[in-house]
Amino acid sequence: MVVEEHRPAGGVAEALALLLPDHAVTGVNAGHLWPAEGGDHAEVLGQLGLTLSAVLTAAA
Questions:
Q1: Residue 12, number of CB atoms within 10 A of its CB
Q2: C-alpha torsion sign, points 52, 45, 24, 58
Q3: Which residues contact 40 (CB under 8 A, 6 or more apart)?
Q4: What does the DSSP 8-state code read for residue 48?
Q5: Which residue, of 35, 46, 53, 54, has the fewest CB within 10 Å?
Q6: Rounded to whole angstroms, how far apart are CA atoms 28 and 16?
Q7: Whole-model pTM?
């Protein structure tokens, strides 16, 4: 499982999936959309969908 403040392409999860083709790599990332508004770090992570609940759901 890789959690990163990054878009799906070019991130650590993508690199690991290429290097480890026989293993499942789950990435939780910022997706393709970037927030249009700022905020503190926690608010921006929430806008990106990088919350504890999202990570735990992906891990299940």
A1: 14
A2: positive
A3: none
A4: T
A5: 53
A6: 13
A7: 0.64
